[in-house]
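Q: Got a minute? One more chain.
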Amino acid sequence: MPLPNRGIAIFDFDDTLIQGDSLPRFLDEVAGVGRTRLAMVGAVAGALTAHGLGRPVDVDFPGSVKALLLRATLAGIPESRAYDAARRLKSRLHWLAPQLEALHRHAADGHRIVVASGALGVYLPILLEGLPVHDILATDVETREGRLTGRLASGNCVRAQKAQRVRPLLAAVNGPSWGYGNRPSDLPMLALVDHPTIV
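A: Always. Here it is, folded:
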């Protein structure tokens, strides 16, 4: 079945479709609260050191913290354990009604629905199951032999990277475009659409 081509609606996930940030809650589920908290302290310290030495782990400080945090919490975790954690997390999400209603309205109007998020590709599709979403752009984590390595397999899908990844989808669709996100991280993506909504 061909994808809808009458317009496109792009949604951020964290603090747009759901309340709060899904990543810390996912890491708590998959790695444990204590390990995640210790890893966060270590990631911040490591990122400060790396940026202070001029050798950042990622392009910016938040990205470096995230990369180090994922290595500390996800290395060696079986994919099946990550999927189970995602299913537990899904049952506790608080969806934000205005944006969720907008998503369903765009789908009913025949628009292509995209969720573009810094959330991880290992869990985001599970959280979105049952919604009329055509494309998911996420931050992918490397896997080897059925286990996560904790290393990023793609760029961190936030800020300029998110805008870069949605640009080809916008170019492929005839018709108007809508975007839903929060400031400041989604402003580069929202600048590309015809009808931006800051939530």
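A: The mean pLDDT is 95.
Q: Perfect, thanks.
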